[in-house]
């Protein structure tokens, strides 16, 4: 990447507050009389896309036009310095580095007593936030002070400082070991997510049995304990052990709550833990404290970036899935419409597996909300998408779900052709399982029989679905089982889908929608 391309991206990516900070910073750096970098910065800011000729034309009358290349390099460094200052102001890391600079200044000027006071304050803050690199620097300064201060040097004090450095070094070494394990787990998860096979199960189990992952007492500090729990939960998710993963994330969040200071310094890790915990809540059906946790995730996301892709792909997804499982139909339909409006613009930034799950949940919500046309649109999004191995079950059932919607909409003329197309698709992918066959067969029966004889077909399918539901767990149920059973029960009771759905959720019998952790770890 050329320097000017990087500079253009930096300038165009700055917020209004960052631009205002740059103008103040640059003027104080260069003075008012000869502030060429501010003028060049303004010229970059006015460009819609980078064009070297357009930039040269914009500054042709300026005195610095003759040495534009040198000024670009100077501006790049000034922008980076300004952003670094802006991003670090008010942060723990920024404050600690500022105190280290103060320590250097005081030491060089021989103000040893004041220097020692700053060291003690910095050590207390660094210990609170577990900043191991800072904690390694501070004893080195103290050892220098012990040598340079008359009468202050004692063998016991210096030995204690070396021991303190050795302890911190062990903490940092373990931190690096956990980072390596976390990286290995994340790499394994990315590979695992591309396939529904269990070929990597042995690797996952071996990593889960690693001493640093298995033994709760092995973590030397809170930061390492959080990494340990995240690694353990991530591996348990890959094995389909959602209950254990939920428990691990819950323990991690307990540590986060007790140490609010760590949330400030590791916001991305805290956000990731919250996100995965909420997905686990969906997988195991725990919604008691879901709303406050989701609100915390929303606030954290807005503070960090306000990224629209994350908002649609994670926040709205979680809120929609909660609405589906808790009977919040009106709110759910609002979320579906919001997703429909924004999904196209953010689709490239969302994983294919997550996008398919979002579309499926939107289809289910529209189905129970009475808007079968919208549900059909969302299912067409799934059917027309490229095959995603980890979400093959959703893609397979989407074809059958469409048949049900055509029947519900009274499109009987389209059904014959759709039956043939669906059968060809399922046979081609070797996915024509008993559940799918039963649903297709019942719909064919309903088309060929009079309305008076429909009840027998509904009863037969309802009994079959209930048997499947009783035989499996929440995670092992086929995709679409609850939706089909709901529809059949509504027909038998002559209820609307909305009424049957509210009744089912109230009784706690339904498990609606797919989520990102169930169905092969999408």
Describe the structure in your own words.
The protein is mostly helical and about 525 residues long. The protein contains 27 helices and no strands. The chain has helices at about 5-10, 15-30, 35-45, 50-60, 70-90, 90-110, 110-130, 130-150, 155-195, 200-210, 210-215, 220-240, 240-260, 260-265, 265-285, 290-305, 310-325, 330-345, 350-370, 370-385, 390-410, 410-430, 435-450, 455-470, 480-495, 495-505, 520. Helix 19 runs antiparallel to helix 20 and helix 25 packs across helix 26.
Summarize the structure.
The protein is mainly alpha-helical and 522 residues long. The protein has helices at residues 3-12, 16-30, 36-46, 52-58, 68-88, 92-108, 112-128, 132-148, 155-193, 201-208, 211-214, 222-238, 242-258, 260-265, 267-284, 290-304, 308-326, 329-346, 352-368, 372-383, 392-408, 412-428, 434-448, 454-471, 481-493, 497-507, 518-521.
- The ordered H/E elements are HHHHHHHHHHHHHHHHHHHHHHHHHHH
Radius of gyration: 30 Å
Assess the beta-strand content as a share of residues.
Answer: under 5%
* Oligomer state of the chains in this structure: single chain
Average pLDDT taken over every residue: 82
Cα end-to-end separation = 34 Å
Major β-sheet profile: none
Unreliable residue stretches:
516-522
Residue share in helices?
over 70%
Number of strands: 0
Structural class: mainly alpha
What's the helix count? Answer: 27
């Amino acid at each position: 990447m050329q320097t000017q391309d990087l500079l253009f991206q930096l300038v165009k990516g700055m917020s209004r507050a960052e631009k205002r900070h740059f103008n103040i910073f640059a003027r104080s750096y260069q003075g008012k009389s000869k502030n060429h970098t501010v003028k060049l910065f303004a010229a970059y800011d006015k460009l819609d896309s980078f064009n070297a000729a357009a930039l040269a034309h914009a500054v042709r009358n300026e005195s610095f036009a003759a040495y534009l290349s040198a000024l670009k390099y100077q501006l790049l460094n000034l922008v980076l310095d300004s952003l670094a200052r802006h991003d670090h102001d008010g942060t723990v890391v920024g404050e600690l580095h500022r105190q280290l600079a103060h320590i250097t200044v005081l030491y060089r000027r021989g103000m040893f007593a004041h220097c020692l006071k700053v060291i003690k304050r910095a050590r207390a803050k660094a210990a609170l936030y577990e900043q191991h690199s800072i904690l390694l620097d501070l004893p080195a300064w103290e050892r220098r002070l012990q040598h340079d201060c008359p009468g202050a040097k004692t063998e016991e004090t210096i030995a204690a400082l070396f021991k303190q450095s050795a302890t911190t070094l062990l903490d940092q070494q373990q931190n690096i070991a956990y980072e390596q394990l976390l990286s290995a787990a994340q790499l394994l998860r990315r590979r695992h997510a591309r396939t529904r096979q269990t070929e990597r199960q042995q690797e996952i189990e071996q990593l889960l049995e690693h001493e640093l992952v298995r033994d709760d007492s092995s973590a030397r500090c809170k930061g390492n304990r959080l990494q340990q729990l995240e690694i353990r939960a991530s591996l348990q998710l890959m094995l389909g052990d959602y209950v254990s993963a939920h428990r691990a994330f819950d323990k991690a969040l307990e540590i986060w709550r007790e140490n609010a200071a760590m949330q400030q310094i590791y916001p991305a890790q805290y956000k990731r833990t919250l996100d995965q915990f909420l997905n686990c809540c969906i997988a195991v059906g725990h919604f008691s404290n879901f709303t406050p946790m989701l609100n915390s995730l929303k606030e954290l996301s807005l503070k960090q970036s306000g990224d629209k892709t994350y908002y649609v792909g994670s926040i709205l997804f979680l809120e929609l899935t909660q609405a589906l499982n808790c009977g919040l139909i009106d709110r759910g339909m609002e979320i579906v419409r919001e997703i429909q409006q924004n999904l196209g613009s953010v689709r490239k930034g969302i994983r294919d597996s997550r996008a398919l799950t979002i579309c499926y949940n939107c289809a289910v919500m529209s189905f129970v909300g009475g808007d079968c046309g919208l549900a059909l649109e969302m299912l067409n999004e799934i059917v027309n998408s490229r095959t995603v191995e980890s979400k093959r079950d959703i893609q397979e059932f989407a074809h059958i779900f469409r048949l049900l919607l055509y029947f519900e909409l009274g499109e009987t003329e389209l059904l014959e052709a759709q039956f043939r197309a669906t059968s060809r698709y399922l046979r081609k992918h070797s996915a024509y399982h008993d559940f799918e066959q039963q649903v297709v067969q019942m719909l064919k029966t309903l088309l060929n029989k009079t309305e008076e004889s429909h009840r027998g077909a509904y009863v037969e399918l309802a009994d079959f679905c209930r048997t499947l539901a009783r035989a499996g767990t929440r995670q092992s149920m086929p995709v679409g089982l609850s939706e089909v059973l709901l529809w059949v029960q509504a027909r038998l009771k002559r209820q609307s889908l909305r009424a049957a759905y509210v009744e089912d959720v109230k009784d706690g019998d339904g498990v609606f929608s797919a989520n990102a952790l169930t169905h092969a770890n999408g």
